[in-house]
Amino acid sequence: MSPDTAAARGGLTLLTRADCGLCEQMLQELAALRLRHALPPLTLLDVDSERELQRRWGLKIPVLLLDEIPVCNARLDEQALLRALRDRHDAA
Predict the structure, then answer these.
(1) Which residues in 35-66 are b (16+ Cβ under 10 Å) and which e?
(2) What pLDDT sits at residue 11?
(3) Long-range contacts: 53-61, Cβ < 8 Å, 24+?
(4) C-beta atoms surrounding 28 within 10 Å
(5) Of 36, 38, 56, whose CA–CA distance to 48 is shortest?
(6) Model confidence pTM above 0.90
(7) Which of 14, 39, 42, 55 is deepest in the core (most CB within 10 A)?
(8) Quick check: 8 pLDDT over 60?
(9) Using 50, 70 and 90 to split pLDDT, how confident is the model at 92?
């Protein structure tokens, strides 16, 4: 599934890679954030599954996308995510 497909369904996309400690950490932080805030569904996408994804994002993972727009990478930026979600809601 490409980020376009995930974005078309709405929700968050986390670009990950196998055996990536930062990816696992961001996933855990997102799970903890979900306990405090209503978050859209999360799609996990292996950056190595498509050549274009690997070329574009391979050195920046994990990358959290909201509607195909990067929110943060390497570390979860809770404030940036909540701000992007608020802006998305206000635009709807």
Answers:
(1) eeeebeeebebbbeeeeebbeebeeebbbbbb
(2) 86
(3) 53/2, 53/3, 53/15, 57/15, 58/17, 61/15, 61/16, 61/17, 61/20, 61/22, 61/23
(4) 11
(5) 56
(6) no
(7) 14
(8) no
(9) confident
Q: CA-to-CA distance for 8 and 11, rounded, in angstroms?
A: 9
Q: Does residue 77 contact residue 13 with C-beta atoms inside 8 Å?
A: no
| Length of the chain as a residue count | 92
Residue with tokens 């599934």: 1
Structure tokens at 40: 């859209």
Kindly state the tokens that stand for 89: 């809601």
Give the pLDDT confidence of 33-86 residue by residue, as tens digits: 999 999 999 999 999 999 999 999 989 999 999 999 999 999 999 999 999 999
